[in-house]
Amino acid sequence: MHRSPYFGNSIEFLQHREYVAGDETRHIDWKVWSKTDKYYVKLFEEETNLRTILLVDASESMRFGSGSSSKFDYACSIAAALAYLLLRQQDSVGVVTFDSAIRNVVPPRSKQTHFGTVLATLTADEPKRKTDIFQILRRIAEDNSRRGMIVLISDLLTDRDGLFRGLKLLRHRGHDLLVFHVLDDQELDFEYSGTTRFEGLEETGDLTCDPRALRDGYLKAMQTYLDEVRRECARNKVDYQVIRTSEHIDAALASFLSKRLGMRQALRS
């Protein structure tokens, strides 16, 4: 991840951490020192490194999975891994799960014990109902006036215009945006054979057909869709990554975060 540029000297006390060389001595808590014989500095709300909201799509289409786990399971694992990394950095992290409405909210906190709350919220949810992505992103923008990082973890099977308008709104509010586009291998490769029954999700009907007759057209439409999402994200300065549910999460995140760090270093040089 990266250190936040939003350091400041707010009067709202948050927590203590041990003094390290380079810290301003005026922030040392001498009362704590007198009791522990150790130096601790006071952290204030604006001095936390980063404030992150993890948005996890819990709509019905996230139930799909051709392997041992669904897209929702994978999305929750990404959210848990990111929460762990952020909390290790003493950053504050919160979680929002959603479908057509916001379902669960865990407010941002930076204490290590907060990780248990994040995990409990993620594991308690089950995908259902449709997605209304614009209303969700608009609500997040309204509820988070303080600039921070917003991470959207979703299959993005939603209204594209609403998605792009929502991302643009969050960027306009000054938020740093990351999008993890979680898709199953079969959604990307469409390697079905023989007569197959496709179960409709999010209020769409079922379809029984020979998928080989649809494959070329499907793959072309999927590539057009991915190109459009990638282009709009780049236009709005949103970091975007397609992730297959067959990828190991640690490798997928390491690759993405390394690329993100490289891009930011290039911009500063």
Note the topology.
Elements lengths: L12 E6 L11 H7 L3 E5 L6 E7 L13 H18 L3 E7 L3 E8 L4 H11 L8 H11 L5 E6 L5 H13 L3 E8 L1 H5 L6 E3 L8 E3 L5 H21 L3 E6 L4 H20 L1
Parallel strand pairs: 3-4, 3-6, 6-7, 7-10
Antiparallel strand pairs: 1-2, 4-5, 8-9
Helix pairs in contact: 2-3, 4-5
Account of the 3D structure:
There is one protein chain. With 269 residues, the chain is an alpha/beta fold. It folds into two domains: 35 residues, no CATH class; 218 residues, Rossmann fold (3-Layer(aba) Sandwich), CATH 3.40.50. It has eight helices and ten strands. The chain has a six-stranded mixed β-sheet, with helices on both faces. Helix 2 runs antiparallel to helix 3 and helix 4 packs parallel to helix 5. The longest helix has 21 residues. The radius of gyration is 21 Å and the shape is elongated. It starts with 12 loop residues before the first strand and ends with a helix.
What attributes characterize this protein structure?
2 domains; Rossmann fold; disordered N terminus; 10 strands; alpha/beta; 6-stranded mixed β-sheet; 269 residues; 8 helices
Number of helices: 8
**Cα-to-Cα separation, first versus last residue:** 19 Å
Q: What overall geometry do the principal axes of the alpha carbons give? A: elongated
In CATH's first tier, which class of the largest domain applies? Alpha Beta
Helix content: 25-40%
Order of helices and strands: EHEEHEEHHEHEHEEHEH
